[in-house]
User: Fold this.
Amino acid sequence: MKRAGFNQLGLPVMLLLPQLIIIAVFFYWPAVFAIYSSFYLQDPFGFGSTFVALENYTGLLSSAEYRKVAVFTVVFSLLVTFLSLSIALLLAVKADKVIRGARTYRTLLMWVYAVAPPVAGFMGVMMFNQGTGPITEFLALFGWEFKLGVNFNDTALAMVVVAAWNQIPVNFIFFLSGLQSIPQSVKEAAMIDNRSGVRRFWDVTFPLLAPTAFFLLVINITYSLFDTFGTVDTLVKGEPGNNPMTLVYKVYVDGFRGNDLGGSSAQSVILMVLVLLLTVFQFRLIDRRIHYT
Amino acid sequence: MAVMTDTDRTVARTGRPVRWSVVIDHAILIAGSLMMILPVFAVFISTSISDVEIYREGLNLSLGPHMAENFDKALFLKGGFTGEITGSSMLINSFILGIGFALGKILIGMTAAYAIVYFRLRFATFAFWIIFTTLLLPLEVRILPTYEVVQGLGLANTYTGLILPLVASATATFFFRQFFLSVPEELVEAARIDGAGPVKFFIDILVPLSRTMVAAIFIIMFVYGWNQYLWPTLITTDESLFTLVRGIKQIIQNLDGANVPEYGRALALAIIAILPPVLVVVIFQSWFVKGLVESDK
Assistant:
């Protein structure tokens, strides 16, 4: 709040009202509704619901299928995060270094930001298609019979590749802007102290990039958890079957295909808690320990 | 000019030797760029091949004669379950969603941030927390209950139901709050001394000051809105409201059912679906990067 603010009541309330109404109706109401219905068992034909306390939660946590999806989601998120962060970091370091064509490289490496995840998934289907996809044909040279949508691990690999590809631009942009904000004087001092580019990177540049990297870590985990819905949905062609799926995808499958409002809501609540923990982690650990000014 | 002697040439050669590290840097960057471009390029080129050929041989990097025809079909041929939607109607819906979402976010975010930053309100801190809690939970997490609520309000299959729930998070508000806090305090003091009220100050001083910020956030929000998939999939079942990105689902499901799937049309639609946001990001690159880096921090 500004010290020299205006002293009025009517106007600011009017200004705040649209925002407050929208989040009340489309955020708080659904969130409370989710918590409420996670304690109820919904009749699949719409005839009322019964209070079952924590049964939806215990049912989930003891379900082998849910655990399998949870494990897959963790592995998937870690792989996507690691792949896209490391590739983007490598590209950003190089793009920061070169003099010729720096602007062109920057454009070429970031435009994929605008490609929607489901469209990227569709392109992935074309690339990994059984029999005709260019990547499938390439892998066949090594005797790898890639079966998208049939083999669990193959489908999972395609998901990881497409999701990471889609996320590289964001990481690239943040790493590049982080690199460019390192003062010239620091770079020169490091140059005098150490001629080896690799040592200089790990001793000076990387620690200076750490705040950006940690911030991106959280962004990437959130991305892999939530924004990859479209990627997953298109790569399995809307047929989950035995294919790998993420937790968010399961919320959708159970809630809309299975009509299990209680179970799906319980899953939503578990995800909410997960996101809250991530955010707390972000604020506590990252902002306090690694911060340079 | 004198003829170059042998000694001169060696100097020239040793003065600018081939720096292998630079070559490797460029090789890595070129490989990275190709990795980003090739899949989309292959899809684009393959829109020029006939459906049968794509069905049999997959994506192709050589031009065929069918590109214009495929794009024409993608944009104007009536299709879908009801036989009434065309690519161009989905394109219009995508623009409505992208622009409507971006404008909604900016309008609501700017006014709310103005109220929080520039007024002495007793409940300002409370409002702040109420609003910023929404940053924590993306729509995907509370998707089913949101659907129930919007359905209950009778907003399914309307533009309002499509756009408003997406607007219900505070990203833009947070962004404008940060920006307003960085605006020098003296401005509002000077404005008050000159007798400007809060409305005049907002319209005549703050809005013009925020122009670049508004442009940056507009680009980010436009791309975000355009690319929405899960929510439009749930809330629009009426095909006349389908966006391009939402339509992708239908396109893929149709591919599996047909005898000779309409690959050419599907690929052309995919290209049309990514073209507007890609162009916006490339053309307004500096605003886009500024908005992205500053809004997320």
Summary: Chain A has a mean pLDDT of 85. The CA atoms of residues 13 and 20 of chain A lie 10 Å apart. Chain A touches chain B through 97 residues (CB under 8 Å).
